[in-house]
Amino acid sequence: MSVFNSKIPEGPLAQKWTNYKDHQKLVNPSNKRKLDVIIVGTGLAGASAAASLGEMGFNVKNFTIQDSPRRAHSIAAQGGINAAKNYPNDGDSVYRLFYDTIKGGDYRAREANVYRLAEVSNSIIDQCVAQGVPFAREYGGLLDNRSFGGAQVSRTFYARGQTGQQLLLGAYQALMRQVNAGSVKMYTRNELVEIVLVEGKARGIITRDLVTGKLERHFGHAVVLATGGYGNTFFLSTNAMGSNGSAAVKAFHKGAMFANPCMAQIHPTCIPVHGEFQSKLTLMSESLRNDGRIWVPAKKEDAEAIRAGKLKPTQIAEEDRDYYLERRYPAFGNLVPRDVASRAAKERCDAGYGVGTGLAVYLDFKSAIDRLGKDVIEARYGNLFQMYEKIVDDNPYETPMMIYPAIHYTMGGIWVDYELQTNIPGLFAAGEANFSDHGANRLGASALMQGLADGYFVLPYTIQNYLADDIRTPRMTTEEKEFVEAEKAVKDRFEKLLSIQGQRSVDSIHKELGLVMWDFVGMGRNAEGLKKAVKRIAEIKKEFWTNVRIPGNKEGMNVELEKASRLADFIEIGALMARDALDREESCGGHFREEYQTGEGEALRQDDKFAYVSCWEYKGEDAEPALHKEELVYEFVEMLQRNYK
Prior knowledge:
Among the domains are: 267-406, Alpha-Beta Complex (Flavocytochrome C3, Chain A, domain 1), CATH 3.90.700; 481-623, Fumarate reductase/succinate dehydrogenase flavoprotein-like, C-terminal domain (Methane Monooxygenase Hydroxylase, Chain G, domain 1), CATH 1.20.58.100. The protein has 18 helices and 19 strands. It has helices at 16-23, 29-32, 44-56, 94-104, 111-131, 163-181, 246-253, 300-307, 324-328, 338-350, 366-372, 374-392, 447-467, 481-499, 506-520, 527-547, 559-583, 607-610; strands at 36-40, 59-63, 81-82, 156-157, 184-187, 190-198, 201-209, 215-219, 222-225, 258-259, 264-270, 293-297, 321-322, 361-364, 401-410, 413-414, 427-429, 612-617, 626-631. The protein has a 5-stranded parallel sheet with strand order 5-2-1-9-17, sandwiched between helices. A 5-stranded antiparallel sheet has the order 11-15-14-12-13. Strand 1, helix 3 and strand 2 (59-63) form a beta-alpha-beta unit. It is an enzyme of class 1 (oxidoreductase). One of its GO terms (biological process) is anaerobic respiration. It catalyses: a quinone + succinate = fumarate + a quinol.
């Protein structure tokens, strides 16, 4: 194993974060005014960090590719946010939330980071209630909770099916208050195109104004990347079309480790692909699995008749339905974790029991409507049912929804230590952009929890600990040679892209990459397929750099240039994902190597060989990246075979 200083504090698990806070270095109020912090991203992690650091007195520059911070992709999260409040009095605790998250991630995350996440979760709810986030409430006025996959308690706070939107509006309010106060300066429609290092430390960024095309230099004593995940490597995903992994690649090229790139989450409840011209996939919240039951026809001839349009799902008798999650996992039923539910759906469809195009299963609410009444279901999920009907033109109150797994969240990302700092001093990563808290699989309702934990309750301590040693560092002029050289490198890259003048559109090449990723680096992976993927991605990279056509120029708005620049980075991420998946000869969470499964088709880990974080180091344009390993040591939990039966 390589030696990584992950900076885990000493002491018992429940005391580590307290010990850290008790001994961290501080910056006094007058010195905070002398320090500049750059935060890239305005989703839950970025907005909460910018608002918090601005309120503390730091000078913050906050960047977003959107026209408003409110359009960050966090707005699309539907189902809820976890916290160990134990309001339903059903046995929850901080430890149980920690354990469910560690177990859900198939024992491939750091104990200390995950415990801290669980520990601060309750404070997040208090913070958001104080901001006026309209969480659902019970009749008596207490906040309501719903269940999510991977847990046997109800700990998920929600606002109908638009929790992400409401939480983001809360963070946005806090952020704009600081913008109005002058402690945060907001830059909209600006994209990070390079990170600037001075004497080995992150000291700024180069951005491109997406409206004018102008490149700008910005100095900061520290830089925080809160730029989301890289699921759009697959072209079709539940991510917004503008979501991209380019900031992570820029950090990777500057020497930051890229950790666990192969760990991508497949979400089991998405509207199935309906045509080759589709540009993205739509998520149906995991919260629907509280009341919806998942099934396929028990008889293959019934499935064939449904696919041929000769039979409707409502005509299938109860005894002729296979509620396969309830059958295979009686203890958790329809609320198994996402990776387990996704693989089970794939297995049924591969066996010939799929409906629709053959790549879909049913999510049925008849039992819940009969038991609770349509008005109750409408109050809980009305906007989700409405969205489904608008897209599919089918009424889910009367006919079961059709769903199928799709690429959703990425657990891999930039390597960070306990302080959320990368191996580049002064460069931090928060939220989905880092790898830290979810291991090989993220439990539902944990993304919002991690984003807000990092921004509101972790970075305000850890970044201060770093900046305490920087109070004598004066603000640098962006005329320093490092800034000049970084800007020149960006110009050269854009000119190279524009000079290709080939025959193919950016989207056509991205779709080709996406098909390779889904076929060989998707739900089921094997050595033969991954080797094909590595070879095919190298061919796609060559095709891109010799035959892509980008109309227009680098001045002014040029959406195709934006997409091309991001696709070049997606191609690199795809190669890294395939390489990492090939190296990890085990199955864990969202990484399912078909050669490594139990007799019952469950993921089979190899803890004696792969209990580590895969950390990849960039070695140059055409050189293979180097693999380093951070050993995962479990002092407080035992690594067990996951069991949801």
